[in-house]
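Reopening this ticket.

The earlier resolution said the output was attached, but the attachment link was broken on my side. Pasting everything inline this time so it's all in one place.
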Amino acid sequence: MNRARPHARVAVSVLLAVALLALAACGAKGNPHPKTLDSYVALGDSYTALAGAGPFVDNACKRAKVNYPHLVAADLGITTFTDASCGGATSANLTQDQAIKNPPASRPPQLEALSKKTKLVTLGIGLNNGSTPISYLLLYVCLPVNGITLPQCSQYLKATDSSVTEAIATMASEVKANLKAIKKAAPNARVVLVGYPRVLADDKDCQALPLPAAAATRLRLALKLVNQDLARTAKSSKVDYIDMYAASPGHELCSNDPWMAGELNVPGKALQFHPYPAYARAVADKIVALLKK
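Inline output:
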């Protein structure tokens, strides 16, 4: 084997150093390093806003100070930060005003918070989509009222699973359009789509969500499909995905460490069927870990 000449070794060392510096600046797979993500905008619905976990920075949107966008911004030391998430938001509210009933208010399209200067965008949206929101069908239509199951429940259960799976497929296409619009409004941003957590474990019933067995089975199936479709949407849109469904086992309702409230509101922590601050912390940890890869 021939020995490398001294000046050749120096040249190789210089090239290696330059390559390492370039990697450090760009992060893994060409993504920006967290230190360059100095402008962050969060978009989403009540699972992002952490509705119910006051104190709020926006009472109408029920947007909490301890939601995962605020935690991510704090963990990464991001000072230019806008949280546009709002309880009740749908995919349409990224491009249209959101009318809020209680208290009566209006919020501008969430995409208005984006610009060419934005370097990081997180999005959590989808379950409120549909003429009848997917979340209503899965969690509320069969929930007993004063111990009585309403007629709408039997109508819902008589319909085939395809009625829900079609709504989920439509939701995924709407989220895909959201991601395209985000990339157009914030062309220099790294985009992260956040999925939804599991609600019920596969192997046991839960009195915190007293649904008929058929409705509980459909809920389990639907949330799995929601997250599968969101993951595929993220991949086809070439954005990052945070899989909170896969992270949820052991944190469902009626577990020893649930990430969300059940049928009853928990004042100061969560609204009915909405996440606790512990869920927000778990999401933030996953986002920060992803960005530091």
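Reporter confirms the inline version is readable. Residues 213-237 form the longest helix (25 residues). Confidence is low (pLDDT under 50) at residues 1-29.
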